[in-house]
Amino acid sequence: MKVESVLQMIHAHEPNSYARNSALPRNVMLKAMPLVKERVRALYRKALFDNYFAVADLGCSSGPNSVLAISGVIEAIMGLCSQKGHSPPEVLVFLNDLPGNDFNSVFTSLPGFYEKLKEKNKVNSTNCFISAMPGSFYARLFPSRSLHFVHSSYSVHWLSQVPELPEQNKGSIYMASTSPLSIFQAYLKQFQRDFTSLLSSRAEEIVPGGEMVLTLMGRSIPDPTSKDCCLFWWWLSRSLVEMADEGLVKDTDIDSFNLPFYTPYMEEVRDVVEAEGSFTINHLETFEMNWDPFYHEDDESCTFDRSKSGRIVANNIRSVTESMLRSHFGDGLVMDNVFERYARLVGEHLDVEKTKHFSITISMTRK
């Protein structure tokens, strides 16, 4: 699978688009926002920028989330400048994603974004300049020492490629309790290679003392089959297996399809950063989020509806995976059928157990 050509979110104008089904990533981004703002303030205190501030957002996708992090960064800068009585710097923003990303919908939203910034910060001009930088963040993207701050949310768990698996991962599309040990080892090695490449590439592009904050999906325990990272893919596997049992897809096609995705344990993230050596970790935290971002168990007025929750989760996963499924299984795979089954299975699971996504946020300073 050529990830750069097939991993893309459904475009914004479509009903199953990521833009319309990305409440979970939005909640994750907002959860990490206090740390993002804290590291921007740390940069300001180090006086690493004066007239301009360059920031890159890796894996921006499309829709309302595309400029959410950038809005937080600019808000932090404007707030500091107001407190200190300083003129705000010009902010250069680079939105990065793979070439197939729906950048046009992002560009269309920018005039409204600029107007909101001016209203919120009570200025005539935002001094903010946004452009796109298509390409894989596992390689160089920007000139040497050109960035002050790099952010990424819910993108780094996507690998540059499906690992080279020494044996078939029968009946599953990701790591599972039924997978051979060699499958787990291959996924870990691919993550280590990719994450090392990301760090070394950004080390060339970020100024010494610059900052990077990454949030990615992970797992809470060393066991790579942890339910908080693998279970939502297991139910997608079961949906495809159901269809194979009915003769709608081939077993061999399921066995040969694996996702370019890895959910690391926190210590695996730390180990790669320390081994690569270009960054100092200044903060590492974890948190959990419900699969259904609209269900809150601590809210007495919020009633669980397994059918509704199943559809919400299915719509989010579909917006991310449909392009890969079509590329592998062909147009004969009826997506509505796949995700109706997936919604049912997920809803039944959540009716029994409210499994959560486990997330890792790491803040680093360029040495």
Automatic annotation (TrEMBL):
GO terms for molecular function: metal ion binding; methyltransferase activity. The keyword Magnesium applies. Keywords: Magnesium, Metal-binding, Methyltransferase, Transferase. GO terms for biological process: methylation. InterPro entries: MeTrfase_7, MeTrfase_capping, SAM-dependent_MTases_sf. PANTHER family: S-ADENOSYL-L-METHIONINE:CARBOXYL METHYLTRANSFERASE FAMILY PROTEIN (PTHR31009). This is Salicylate carboxymethyltransferase-like isoform X1. The lineage of its organism: Eukaryota, Viridiplantae, Streptophyta, Embryophyta, Tracheophyta.
